[in-house]
Amino acid sequence: MKLTLRNLSLLGLVACAPLSAQRYLTEQFDAVNVQENVVYGSNYTVITGSPQLQPLVMDVYTPAGDTETDRPLIVYVHTGSFLPRYRNNLPTGAKDDSATVAMCRTFARKGYVVAAIDYRTGWNPASPSEQTRKQTIIQAVYRSMQDTKTAVRFFRKSIAEQSNPYGISNEKIVIGGQGSGGYTALAYATLQETSEIQLLKFFNTETSLFMVDPTIMGDFEGLGGNPALNQDNHPGFSSDISMIFNIGGALGDSSWLEAGEVPICSVHGVNDPFAPYMNGTVFVPGTPFAVVNVDGSGRVTELANEYGNNDIWLNPPFTDPVTNYAQAALAGTVNEGNEGLFPITALQNASGPWEWWDSTTVVAQCALLDIDVEGANARMANGYLSNPVYEALGPIAGRQRALAYVDTLQNFITPRMYRALELNVGIAENSAIAAGVNVFPNPVSRFTEITSTRSNIRNYVVYDNQGRMVRNDSVNNDRFTFDRTGLSAGSYFIELFFQEGSLTRKLILE
């Protein structure tokens, strides 16, 4: 059953009312195909101590039975505190985590191609040296960013040299990050200059060296550097993207974010104890040590709006229930009126309420790593720190609650992605489709008949003269009767959606 947070009112959140059926906005496909462990590159990992070359793999999700060949691509970066699952003392941290799979499958059912990537991990969270903890984690974020860019270049190379086997667009690519993957996505969107990574806060006072040196680790694309530490993958192809979304991550430093960078959509717990919502210190579940000072989603969104990077989402404004809830929660804060931020306000939901896991699977997989049942239970206990209500509800109701949060994430992120990718393609007014559309009578007393002779109308959205959505519905026919009952007199705009795109007509309601 499709859950919404309205079904689970104890969460104190609101889910979006169903949108009319529209590809890339709502689910269109019943089934999803998954290609597992596709190799997208290789590079040196330090997880074992000395550098060793490892394959970089991903799971690729596509809508089953789809015939489109120019589909938007989402590269999805999982959580895990930049350590392998279970070795990180957590029950999550891999591309097949429950919440990651649910997000990827839902996007694919909407028509997107989604690549859930594994990436190089490894740092030293238990070091007694703050300098070592800070250096190793910022290097881990840097390597994960390089690997994510490798994945984007892999797909562009596949278009150019392999006749586009994944059926994706060369121009419409989004990076999404969940938990620690959000750190990666934010770095991807903002980190471009050596001067940005070589700040005083990232200078190791014990070694008198900067913590990240691109001449050694490779540049921001993952190219160059010491060939014993970094391997080039797919040089000559672009890693440009259209936007990122960040679920509970943070930015290494606010100075990284500048005007003209891609839009950033974020979801974050206001009281997150591990990744600060505004500015603060990172703590890792299962470890006692502070790591590094960062800027969370509240500060990131404040700057993205100040610089105009999120302006694409301002006009027309979103007026769905999820957005309305977010705007009400932001009222009276530094983010009041900001676009692109969904704050989770309840204390018990502050960190990862969308996460869940199967305890039997955790125990079995831990056993393969020589971790006993007590150790498996300890890892699940650490997981409950991010999602305490899950433990209280138990596995069945807890999973339902987590899926409700997944629905809310989808309902907040998807419309913004749809607009940033310009998926609402306008139909030219001199086209045959536009010429075949008729609205009569107009002005409208109560009813008007809208017909299309060249292409079926999939659905429509009506906006008032301030750009607010006031009505929407499915059609899937070449004609329908519009009833203006409940709408005040005045000027409105009706946007009609076809397979080929959309066009808008003005309505005058008497």
What keyword list fits this structure?
510 residues; alpha/beta; Rossmann fold; Immunoglobulin-like; 2 domains; eight-stranded mixed β-sheet; four-stranded antiparallel β-sheet; globular; disordered N terminus
Biggest sheet character: 8 strands, mixed
CATH architecture of the largest domain: 3-Layer(aba) Sandwich
Tell me the count of domains.
2
Q: Could you tell me the mean pLDDT?
A: 92
Quaternary structure? single chain
Low-confidence stretches: 1-20
Gyration radius (Cα, Å) is 24 Å
Q: Please state how the strands of the largest beta sheet are arranged side by side.
A: 1-2-4-3-5-8-10-13
Helix percent reads: 25-40%
| Beta-strand segment tally | 20
Structural class per helix/strand content? alpha/beta
Count of separate DSSP helical elements:
12
- The portion of residues forming beta strands comes to 25-35%
CATH topology of the largest domain: Rossmann fold
CATH superfamily of the largest domain: Alpha/Beta hydrolase fold, catalytic domain
- The CATH class of the largest domain: Alpha Beta
Q: What's the overall geometry? A: globular
Q: Terminal Cα separation, in Å? A: 42 Å
Overview of this protein structure:
The protein is an alpha/beta fold. The chain has two domains: 9-420, Rossmann fold (3-Layer(aba) Sandwich), CATH 3.40.50; 432-509, Immunoglobulin-like. It is built from twelve helices and 20 strands. The chain has helices at residues 98-109, 130-161, 180-190, 194-197, 214-217, 297-306, 321-330, 359-368, 373-386, 388-393, 395-420, 432-435, and strands at residues 32-45, 52-63, 71-77, 113-117, 168-178, 203-204, 209-210, 243-247, 250-251, 264-269, 279-283, 290-296, 341-344, 437-440, 447-452, 457-464, 469-477, 479-483, 490-498, 501-509. The strands form five sheets. It has an eight-stranded mixed sheet with strand order 1-2-4-3-5-8-10-13, sandwiched between helices. α1 (98-109) links the parallel β3 (71-77) and β4. α2 (130-161) crosses α3 (180-190) and α8 (359-368) crosses α9. The chain is globular, with a radius of gyration of 24 Å. The chain starts with 31 loop residues before the first strand and ends with a strand. The model is unreliable at 1-20 (pLDDT under 50).
